[in-house]
């Protein structure tokens, strides 16, 4: 058995014939515990190969409650409230955001974009864009970029301005917010808790999360995740896969902390860690609208290469937030090349 | 005990000279001795075989395979012709890599050679020369990766972290001290008592002598508020001919508080310059006290705009953007200089020691100045060494990777061909065809320099 970090990778291997499909027994277990979207991610052609065993929840913003209470703002629920809160924080003398837009860590920018896009354009368009059935020059992309520019386009909102933001690494951005207390909010998935643990701030009291604000009608729920696949036929492997797909396996791991699962039959109470409990609530609320991280669904040349493709196009957009059309053209050109 | 059995004197087996000098002009014997001198070709081949096999496997095969691979597309199945080669010169990222490589090849070797020459000549003249050389040479002992990490820190944007910007800020601040409240400004939205005015802040309405002015500012960063600041007070009552007022940070901790009024818990901003302006002309000035109040005396009659000039709000000097798109390649070349100048210095110093002293003495006796001696005698005599250093560095520069990879941190503006080769082939591009094409191109570029060095070594032998 192997555990792969990207469904795209799983599909490549499945097409090469390196993976063994799940037995009907396991597939029925998957059907029982996962929504069709997650089953589909673990499938290639008409066969199911993988079980999503672990998720990274990417639709949250981390914030410093102290900075929020000093400025008298509440965690926002809509994009408009987020922009207003950022303005108020700035008036109170606190820089609202740190942005990790360094060339190696521009994946945070793709996550921002995905959250806004999923929220505004909806899950169907999201899927189409991920498959490049919608062009990046589409008006929905334009709207999402314009929305992002309401925050990215204000250098005063970003710690150190654009010059610092476009060189900041992800771990640095978390340290700037919670270690040096230079900003009130930072984007990071649930895994950012590990980075916060290296500072003096305590997760849950000095560092809290709120759901990524809705920029449109859909509450965004973006996940990354690991998919387990079987490399060999054999009863043992299928039994283990079946166990991994079951709620029991999820409950055990959830009790140990640092874990989220898209398995809908693992109850929130099974999670030991309060932040995880909150996140799983959000995730289960999103239900069928939850989507996998788009940049991990696209070809790696477009969605996962530092200094290239979507990463660099969005990083350039942070430097030139007025140039929405140019950014779209660049994204489309890069995508056209990567999908060919 | 082979020699006695053969009946040949031991001297003959020891070397060719003895054999050739054999007085006996016996042809068969001569042939025999020649056979002994050169081993049979099959034996030579046998001895060379391990080396040849290793070289073939590690050098020739990869080169040949790279050339073949570069003619196929990403999957390796379809023949792509020269598309991969033309692709090197297409696309913004690739063109930047080509441009940067050109900059590197032109600038870095000559710069390092010049600095090395400079150090070598200087160390000839100073005491403790060995200690100095040791220090300059020391970076060579550090791995490039570690050097890259060091210089990434050196070039950090934040002057609290990056020593380059810390030095620039320190020098700047000795000449011009920034004071004030960078970033501060009036509250946004309509109907506010203050507005932005050419980088500064001015009242929306006008005021005249005998009036008091409230000047609420927001966006004040706590770290810029001096320790001596006191809670904001109401402006003192204005006497005839006076304009009084308060400049304060109009934000109550925790929100709430009536805007545009100095509430309890709000801080006055000391040290702010205030001007009364009419028609672009400053008629009176004042500076705020610890509680933010100010009093302008001797204000003539008339209506004035009260202004906080822009120098209250100038952003502090933060140094250069070393890792920005324009400076990043020069910055990385700087770190390369740090690593390699010791190497150049040691080679050139060795060449310098080998220069015949009498040539220099003769020039001095003939009345040449030190500069003329250096320019007309030392440099021409050193030219071969300088050439070797520059050419070796050129070869080295074409394959520079570690420093660019670490300091550039993936920024395409720093990319060079060697890095692009890796990115295309393995670092996400997954196109080994394109990567191989760049590799072959680099090989072609390095080849003339290699040939030059080989020819030089041959010349030195003869």
From TrEMBL, chain B:
It is a multi-pass membrane protein. The chain crosses the membrane at residues 42-64, 102-122, 134-155, 337-356, 377-398, 434-454. Residues 1-35 are annotated as: Disordered. Keywords: Cell membrane, Membrane, Transmembrane, Transmembrane helix, Transport. Residues 98-453 form the ABC transmembrane type-1 domain. Residues 1-23 have a biased composition (Low complexity). The keyword Repeat does not apply. GO terms for biological process: carbohydrate metabolic process; transmembrane transport. One of its GO terms (cellular component) is plasma membrane. InterPro entries: Ig-like_fold, MetI-like, MetI-like_sf, UgpAE/MalFG_permease. Its main location: membrane. Belongs to the binding-protein-dependent transport system permease family. PANTHER family: BLL4140 PROTEIN, DIACETYLCHITOBIOSE UPTAKE SYSTEM PERMEASE PROTEIN DASB. This is Alpha-glucoside transport system permease protein.
